[in-house]
Recover the amino acids of this structure.
């Protein structure tokens, strides 16, 4: 608890040379401002990318066939093979910890021939033969109608769910797609739903809306795929890692297709869980860099305050001598210098936090007022715990900055101080 006189003395001391005080404060202000902004920017990028993963089963991988790279059981290397529908059940039976094993087939694609026709309009779109659980493995909002179900699979219904991009290409504005028919490679499918994929701002976000989903069984029947499976989307249960289960899955495939056990190129895969962990590690590294840079700048500001306090003590040599002569204890002198240092440090730090908060508020208002669904940046913010820790660091920094000047002050002898000009 400090008296009003002491607070007046602190304010008078710091304002005696206000330009010097302000310039000294800028170091701490810039340090804490930079720390908050860097952490908030990292959080904004993390929020944007995590939004892209929202709804997606990140503990997943996609698997496809490649040519063999080793000869085995009398068969040459460079051999091509195809997944079969029986592989799906074999994987489910032999690998524990899997939640979904979804076989997929595909037609068309970006840059391909016009494989979908409705009336006089046509377009080149990705067409997938899928099972209903694919909607739980990839982020997708059904905007009208419904998605695939197992009755569609069982009865091999020729039905289709189209993306909003497909609808915009093949239908007039405000025209309903539900119940209409589209022709895929010459085969008619009835549209039972439309969807919009959730995108995290990737380069192919527009193409994600230009896809068509049909039942796997009707796809195989309509396009003469037989038992062939083009590729698979496999998701592990929450308590398991798909990365750790990959080797077991590959082992099942290699045994069923007579592939050399050590042939690591015969089965291609994209491990979404592994990539997700890389991104998480990247943000950890970015936060570490933000803390490192911010603390270094903050430290330089604290050193500046310490230097200024040394100058202040030297300028007040006579005053300190008079106070010592009048009976002021070393503890009171030390406390006064430390308090001035702490007040200057905290005031500078709070100004930095306020400026950073105003900037973040402005950025968030701008983001809220605009469509940022395709941006890899969302809601930049800093946890209040970080702000509290920063304030504690400022208090400690202020004490450290004033410690050497305070020790110098109490070493001044009253006789020497009074004789100083």
């Amino acid at each position: 608890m400090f008296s009003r006189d002491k607070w007046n003395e602190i304010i008078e001391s710091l304002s005696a040379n206000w330009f010097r005080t302000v310039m000294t404060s800028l170091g701490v202000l810039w340090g804490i401002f930079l720390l908050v902004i860097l952490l908030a920017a990292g959080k904004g990028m993390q929020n944007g990318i995590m939004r892209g993963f929202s709804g997606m089963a990140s503990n997943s991988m996609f698997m496809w066939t490649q040519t063999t790279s080793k000869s085995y059981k009398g068969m040459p290397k460079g051999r091509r093979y195809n997944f079969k529908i029986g592989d799906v059940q074999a994987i489910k039976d032999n690998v524990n910890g899997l939640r979904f094993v979804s076989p997929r087939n595909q037609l068309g694609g970006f840059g391909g021939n016009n494989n979908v026709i409705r009336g006089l309009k046509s377009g080149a779109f990705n067409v997938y033969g899928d099972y209903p659980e694919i909607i739980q493995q990839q982020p997708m909002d059904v905007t009208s109608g419904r998605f695939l179900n197992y009755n569609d699979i069982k009865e091999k219904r020729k039905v289709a769910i189209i993306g909003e991009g497909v609808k915009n290409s093949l239908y007039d504005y405000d025209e309903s797609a539900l119940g209409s028919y589209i022709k895929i490679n010459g085969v008619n499918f009835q549209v039972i739903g439309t969807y919009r994929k959730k995108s995290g701002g990737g380069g192919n976000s527009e193409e994600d809306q230009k896809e068509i989903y049909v039942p796997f069984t009707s796809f195989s029947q309509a396009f003469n795929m037989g038992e062939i499976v083009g590729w698979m989307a496999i998701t592990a249960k929450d308590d398991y890692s798909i990365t750790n289960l990959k080797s077991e899955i590959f082992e099942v495939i290699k045994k069923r297709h007579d592939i050399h056990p050590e042939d690591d190129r015969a089965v291609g895969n994209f491990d979404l869980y592994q990539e997700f962990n890389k991104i998480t590690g990247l943000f950890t590294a970015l936060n570490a860099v933000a803390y490192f840079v911010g603390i270094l700048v903050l430290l330089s500001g604290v050193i500046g305050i310490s230097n200024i306090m040394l100058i202040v003590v030297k300028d007040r040599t006579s005053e300190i001598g008079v106070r010592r002569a009048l009976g002021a204890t070393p503890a009171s002198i030390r406390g006064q210098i430390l308090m001035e240092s702490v007040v200057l440090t905290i005031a500078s730090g709070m100004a930095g936090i306020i400026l950073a908060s105003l900037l973040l508020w402005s950025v968030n208002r701008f983001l809220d007022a605009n469509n940022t669904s395709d941006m890899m940046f969302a809601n930049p913010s800093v946890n209040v715990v970080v702000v509290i820790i920063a304030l504690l660091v400022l208090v400690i920094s202020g004490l450290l900055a004033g410690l050497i000047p305070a020790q110098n002050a109490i070493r001044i002898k009253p006789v020497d101080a009074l004789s100083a000009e």
User: Anything to note?
Assistant: DSSP finds 13 helices and 14 strands in the chain. Residues 193 and 268 are 32 Å apart (CA to CA). The longest helix spans residues 272-315. The chain has three domains: 4-54+277-419, 67-92+242-265, 98-236.
